[in-house]
Amino acid sequence: MAALNENTVWTWNAIGKRKGAWALDTDAPEATRGFLLNHLIHELLPAKQDGMRWSNSDPITGQAAWFDLRVSIARAPAPREAQPAFPPIRTPVPKGPAKLAQKVGS
Q1: Using alpha carbons only, what angle is made at residue 12 by residues 18 and 22, rounded to the nearest 5 degrees?
Q2: Spatial separation of the C-alpha atoms in residues 7 and 10, rounded to whole Å
Q3: pLDDT tens digits, 23-74
Q4: How far apart are CA 13 and CA 34, in angstroms?
């Protein structure tokens, strides 16, 4: 796609979920193998010469500015569970059935 920078690594923020979120089981792959990058990206940019720290977001939409981030990626041994691992959160959404079946037709 012409609009994409060939040196940009794209991620989908929704591949990782905190345990308990979305009523997922605490051992669901989204909670144990997925990962989130939100905690790595500070909401403020580094201080300018005048000491001011601007928001690390698009000035119109307020969306986090991931597009101009420089990262270094290195292979590491796979942990037993994705890190950082936080305790499950309480959710008001009840857990769904372990098995879901639906009859189609008569």
Answers
A1: 30
A2: 10
A3: 878 888 878 887 666 666 777 888 999 999 988 777 766 666 665 566 677 8
A4: 10
State residue 50's pLDDT score: 94
Name the residue among 3, 29, 17, 9 with its Cα closest to residue 69: 9
Q: How far is Cα 46 from Cα 70, in angstroms, rounded to an integer? A: 13
Tokens of 8: 């940009």
Distance (Å, whole) CA 54 – CA 96: 43
Domain boundaries, the chain: 11-88
Q: Which two tokens stand for residue 41?
A: 């990206």
Decide if pLDDT at 3 tops 80. Answer: no
